[in-house]
Structures are given as C-alpha cells and as structure tokens.
Write a structure and sequence with these properties.
Length: 380
Amino acid sequence: MTNGFVHPDFGGVTEVLRKVAKHKLGGGGAVAVIHRGEVVVDAWVGPRNRDGDPWTASTVAMSFSTTKGVVATATHRLRDKGLIDYDVPVAEYWPEFAAAGKHNITVRHLLNHSAGMHRLRDVIPNASVLLDWDETCSAIAATPAAWEPGTRHGYHAITYGFLVGEVLRRITSKSVTEVIRDTVVEPLGIDPLEMTVGRSRETRGDLAELLVDFSSGAISERGFARLSKFSRLEAMTDAFMVPEFDRLFHADAVYDAEMPALNGCFTARSLATMYSAMINGSEFLSEETRQIATTQQTTQRDSVVFFPMRWRLGYHMAATLKGVLPRGFGHFGLGGSGAWADPDSQLAVAFVCNRVAGSPFGDQRFLRLGAAALKGAKNR
C-alpha cells in the first residue's frame, strides 16, 4: 500500500511507484513531485530493510550519484554569494591542486566533467581510502589530468565529490554537509536530517538499508576485470575500478565519511524541494547563476561512459520514458535514485530507493516515474 499524499491528476505516479517497488529482492522507495511550486506527490511504499520495517515519511536512502546535483547546487549558491568564480583556477582555492601541470583547470572544468580528472585506478590503493578525506584529496591533487581541460567531457564518477567538495571546504572551512545545510537546507526549510552527505551514527535510525548484490555486477571486482580487457573502456575502468569498491558498500563504515559523489542520504521530498526552488522564480538562485548553471555544455558522447550526458555545471540531462526534456537538468544515481527539474513543464521530480538494481542506464524505475509526472502535469 502506498502512503503519503497524491494530487488526483498525478495518480499515475503512485501507480508506477507501487509497480516499481515490487521485486523478489524486496525494498521500497519514495517519490516526490512539485508542479508550479506546489507539492502534488509525496508518497512512499515498501519495506526499508530486510526485516520488513515499513518505509516512513522520514526514511532517507543513500542515493549514490544523485548526490552530485546537490553538491553542484550548493556550489552555485556560493557563486551568488560572491565566494566562488567558475572560471578561476582551482589552484587559487586549493594550491596543492596545481601539481602535475594542473594550474589551468578551473572550477567550471570540475563541474562540467571536462577537467580530465576522472581517474582513481592506481591513484588510491583501495576503496577504503575513500573514507579518509585528506588522503584521497592529496592523492587526486598529485595526479595529472588525462587530457587538456575543456577539450573533452568524461564523467568524474567518484572523483567529482572530492574535487568539488575540497574547493567548498577550502572556501568555507566547513564540511560539505555543513555547506549544504547553510546554502540549501536552511534557506529552503528542509529538515536537516533529510539531506546529508554520509550519516552520523546517532541519526541512522531512519536510514533505509541498502539491498544490493554487487558480486556479479559491473562495479564488482570481477566486473572491473572484464572491463579492463577492452582498451576502448580504459577511461571507464580508470574512473570506477577501485579494489574492494563493492565491499565498501557492504560495510556500515560507508556512512561514516563524506563521499560527495556517492553517499548523500536524502528523502525524495528534500530533493524535489531543492530542484523546484531552482525553476519556480524564487530568490533561491539569481537568474544569471541559474542560466549559467543549467545551460547545456556539450552534445558529444561522454569519454568515460560513452553516452551523450548533455552536461551542465554539475547536472546532466533530464530523461524519461517519454524522451529527454530539452531544458531539463538533474542527476541520477547508481542505485536507481534520481532527481530533476524542468522549467518548461514547471516540474521537479525525485525518487529514492534502497534496492540497487544495477546500472542507471538499464534501470527504468526513475524514467517511468518521470514520464508519469509529465502526463500528470499535462492533465492539470
């Protein structure tokens, strides 16, 4: 049974939610839709853990790369405050980053994935190092770029969070969660426990348990070994192939540290609230910053994932089963989650879940929910 609220015109969204939550491996999820600034769906369904405890209004789920869009939004808010310039070299904020000839990489290059800094293979020895912020950032800072910045776009799948996150930390002297709290959570009246990067041990009572089997998937060590045999997939294996990566997500320690490209913990409500604020004409972002942040940067195939991601500054295209929204922007995550905003339909849509179904390119749950939300908007 679905719990929460749904506007009659958007009943199709909760119908899809019920269907996508049904699976032999179990799991649940939540969806939120805001249309023209009004909440029209805030619903949840299914169990939040293997014990069968029900998903509730306050349940948060680790949302993998959906985190990147939240970190980007915090960055844009700092730009409005005059604290960051997209076209300033990263080394002006983070001097150590200039090592290995990287003095001309700018903040813009980090945000639109054109810095050539996607590599983690051989940069850190194993995934447990990701739990040590300083060690990971030092290793990345010492690494040369894979190409001349700005000449190609290639998904910085894991490094993005440390690259952008360290810039935020250098500017504010605060953790990434604290920056998000100050720039997004508090201004929008979001419950601070509904939007964090990582999760303190004392606040994990409302955290959904990840239901995942990486053993045969593309991000398992066996999967990486298969990929590494193909030279044309070198960039992909460089970005994702970190020893013991799958083990990291079987350990409770994955929540202990901030990994701002991976371990954001959100409700669908908090994500939809943030994305809606970016398009509803509020004072959340200046029009100038909004236009710069959400303008498409490239139509070329991504050099890491080989798919045209249509990068913005920290966001990619908004896709549904009804097609790609020309001006839509957002970010999806490995576990099936995602969130986007579309200024043309005045929609913001978000989905979080705890059953990890595999590659985002093959997971249609969020695509189906987005299509249902678009249909509801047309009926309203």
